[in-house]
């Protein structure tokens, strides 16, 4: 379940990055600024890190014991 939530948040992060790129390329003063979408992307990445840390602390997910 945690993995599905993280994947959905990653897809939302990519979507916000794409929307920020569109705003940057258009440069239309009537549209919202790209900082709105970049801020959402930063918030989503912080949320992902927080979910992963809490999940590891609660024992819901376990890190790979051997890195190779």
TrEMBL record:
The keyword Transmembrane helix appears for this protein: yes
Database matches in InterPro entries: DUF2909
Keywords: Membrane, Transmembrane, Transmembrane helix
Superkingdom of origin: Bacteria
TM stretches of this protein: 6-21, 42-61
UniProt KW Transmembrane keyword: yes
Protein name (database record): DUF2909 domain-containing protein
Organism encoding this protein: Pseudobowmanella zhangzhouensis
């Amino acid at each position: 379940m945690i993995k599905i939530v993280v994947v959905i948040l990653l897809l939302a992060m990519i979507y916000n990055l794409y929307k920020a790129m569109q705003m940057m390329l258009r440069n239309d003063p009537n549209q919202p600024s790209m900082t709105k979408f970049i801020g959402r992307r930063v918030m989503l990445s912080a949320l992902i890190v927080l979910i992963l840390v809490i999940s590891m602390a609660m024992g819901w997910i376990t890190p790979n014991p051997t890195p190779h």
